[in-house]
């Protein structure tokens, strides 16, 4: 007998007609299954990027990782694969002691531009617009921009990540620097994370930056975050009072705190801008993954009985870019992952307020209403979505809608 339908949290979809898109900075971090491992284990190393300790995809562009073994030897980690969420590598833990995994993600360059209140239709309070590196200033529609618009920064992001594993659950040495240009160093015992105040130090090329330059944040999830500014010694204490996995991140405290570059007053700007110019250079951020460690003489037993219908949909946001009436967007891939105990049939429902998506959203080259896909247990499907803007569509500005994914057992 078929079970009742179940829906996934909706995936927002967005397109901008005649305006520029907006992005927000992704974090990049390392994921491991556990910090305490057995001698001889093969350790799965995964790099992902996203927001609020929720991975959204494999980091694009240049990604690499390095392993520091208990003897101090450094070995590049070879990429073993890539999927919708992760850049993968692994290693065999054949020595007793602490292994440190170091990651580097060099992203594409970005422009952050102050365009003023009301410059983004549908977002009257948002004052900034982002563009990837190569832009033609003369072709940008600045109709709604403030007359003092200006470049806040033009920067290339360098993202450093770190994680620890140990074959004897001894984490002596985690309070050492491992030579990352921007590095987060845990000064307290990492086995106590989640039990109270925890002190960190952030160093730039082995030295602290001036007081207030670096903001450090501990994240459990989107609703649980704690932050502090690092002092002249690069130190800050975070109240990590919940037993869980924590992602610790660090970067420039604000737009005026970037340090690896200079300010350029020759950058494009509006006619009434009188400032000193925008920052041009490199942006640096760091991430440290701390996985909860459970100790004691009691072995806790746990089993999860999977529900018949359980699935996830990624990403949670589709941006089809800037389009004109009659245009067809580049396809965007959506991943439907079956994590329940039964095979599923997936369908979709589309909602919007202007008819753009209900008339123009196509999945696998057919109108969304025709989409139906079987997703086997422990498997996934990856349909492509594209937006075909009707030639007679009269709306303009940022158009939002939602895709609701439904599933039933088969």
Labels describing this entry:
single chain; 410 residues; mainly beta; Immunoglobulin-like; 2 domains; eleven-stranded mixed beta sheet; six-stranded mixed beta sheet; 1% helix; disordered N terminus
Structural summary, described in words:
It is built from one helix and 32 strands. With 410 residues, the protein is an all-beta fold. It folds into two domains: 6-18 and 324-409, Immunoglobulin-like (Sandwich); 20-295, no CATH class. Strand 4 and strand 5 (54-57) form a beta hairpin. It is globular and about 65 Å long. The chain starts with 5 loop residues before the first strand and ends with a strand. The model is unreliable at 1-24 and 296-301 (pLDDT under 50).
Amino- and carboxy-terminal Cα gap: 8 Å
Strand coverage percent: over 45%
Helix/strand/pairing category = mainly beta
The radius of gyration is: 24 Å
Largest sheet: 11 strands, mixed
Question: With helices defined by DSSP (H or I, 4 residues minimum), what is the helix count?
Answer: 1
What overall geometry do the principal axes of the alpha carbons give?
globular
Total number of strands: 32
